[in-house]
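User: Fold this one for me? It's Putative phosphonate transport system ATP-binding protein.
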Amino acid sequence: MLRLPSPVLTLGRVSYDRRIAPDTSFVLYPGEVLCLVGKSGAGKSTLLRMAGGLLRPHEGRVLHQSADGPISIYELPEQALVSQRRRNVGIVAQNARDTLDMAQSAAANIVQPLFDNGERNFGRAMASAQHWFAALDLDVARMGDLPSLFSGGMQQRLQIARALVHGPKVLCLDEPTTGLDTSVQVRLLSLLSGLQRQTGVAMLLVTHDLRIARLIAHRVIVLDEGRIVEEAPPDRLIADPCHPAARDLVAAMI
Ligand SMILES: Nc1ncnc2c1ncn2[C@@H]1O[C@H](COP(=O)(O)OP(=O)(O)OP(=O)(O)O)[C@@H](O)[C@H]1O
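Assistant: Here's what I get for Putative phosphonate transport system ATP-binding protein.
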């Protein structure tokens, strides 16, 4: 009998005021790419933030996989929650200014999560920064530049390098390609897909665009008014959407 691996992330019957309905649950498996899709205001970012350890649910539990088994992260003391999140999760925001320190160089931004996780060897940290710069197709000669000197697409790649440098189990991305030209979006998604396969990191990606989900996701969850209304592989969802909210998203693809 086929046995599924233990999830890296479990949301068990969570809720958050009226933004997320009571009893919202899902799991994320190792190496899986799961997209949360829905129209504006559906509750995607709220759910992502709860999953990533950034927003405490009013009810329910969020479990992260750790060396000692699943941990209910919001039952940890605040400092332990921060440490667990720093080890386990990488965050990529829609707006690079939400995660990058614009007053620090690109390299300093990328190595920060290593120092946050206890790295004390500067040379080793800089070698990692160099590795991730190259992996994200960024010019290593520009590692000393401030992030504001990079284009929008490059700033998103800086965020991704920073989010992956410490080897998290889960990468949480909130609309990472919004505002970028179509060709830049496609390039970024293809880079992300390649890095996901190389590293085996599980990805939870928020988007309102099913075309993005089709390019990158193994599974899609459709949210509507804070509820999970449908869940399917992207091709199945696009070919045969059942819920009206899913049908609207499919119609918007044309
Ligand atoms: N700080 C807040 N206080 C109260 N309500 C909020 C707050 N932030 C968001 N909301 C509301 O909660 C609902 C869900 O918000 P959320 O940002 O999670 O949705 P979303 O699907 O990510 O939307 P978008 O695609 O527009 O970012 C929306 O109706 C939004 O207006």
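One thing worth pointing out: The longest helix spans residues 182-199.
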